[in-house]
Amino acid sequence: MVAFATVEDYEARSGATLAGRRRAQVVAYLEDASALMRRHIPTGHTPDEETLRAICVAVVRRVMANPGGYRQRTIGQYSESLGEDGGLYLTDDEKEQLQPEGSDPDADAAYTVSLADQGLPGWRDDPADCRPRWFW
Q1: According to a count of CB atoms within 10 Å of the terminal CB, is the N or C end of the chain lower?
Q2: Beta-ladder partners of 81
């Protein structure tokens, strides 16, 4: 399937110029992020393209910045805390943006079921219509 964003979209938003293996890695991550996003889009709903592109790039930027998903790393006396988890995932806010406006993803949907039985040949909707014509 086609990714919601391109490598050029990623480069424009991250300020990076990619080549070779890094470019191929971003292409794969964009496809993976798009697949994750499709799982959270309800059937029949199509979010606007700009939202899809922005979320897809944000997911890939997270995984490229922190592929191991580290919260903190220490080397000797140097310690660094990372602002967000890494890895390929969607935040709750991103999942919400993929839903139709005003919808509750946990709510049950209403629907109608038709209960007409059209099973047997000669079936008539009106039982009074089943008398032979000579009684009239």
Answers
A1: C
A2: 72
